[in-house]
Amino acid sequence: MADGGQGAERAAAAPRITMLGKHGCHLCDEALEVIRRVAADTGAGYEVRYLEDASRQERDEYWERIPVTFVDGAPHDFWRVSERRLRAALAGGGE
């Protein structure tokens, strides 16, 4: 999982999707593939943040649940990313 050189990977648009992950995590790599595909299809921006660089509070809260996906700042999925649910959330389906 590339870190964009600055600890975050960003698409052109303002990020609506944030993935909080860990370096070397195969579930994070799989989640990022889904996020990239959905972001490319929908035009939604995304960013990748790493728990190693996160606050103590985020590490304590999310360490056992990575990858964690947020949509518009709200927790959305843990461990795996459902492409269907992610698309619905971005479309305003609230799922």
Properties at a glance:
95 residues; alpha+beta; Glutaredoxin; four-stranded mixed beta sheet; 3 helices; 34% helix; Glutaredoxin-like; Thioredoxin-like_sf
Task: Describe the protein.
The protein has 3 helices and 4 strands; from the N terminus they run βαβαββα. By secondary structure, the chain is an alpha+beta fold. The chain has a single domain, classed as Glutaredoxin, CATH 3.40.30. The chain has a 4-stranded mixed sheet, with helices on one face. A hairpin with a 2-residue loop joins strand 3 (68-71) and strand 4. Helix 1 packs across helix 3. The longest helix is centred in the middle third of the chain and has 17 residues, at 26-42. The chain starts with 14 loop residues before the first strand and ends in a 5-residue tail after the last helix. 26% of the residues are buried. Mean pLDDT is 86; it is low at 1-13. It comes from Nocardiopsis composta. This is Glutaredoxin. It holds the Pfam family Glrx-like.
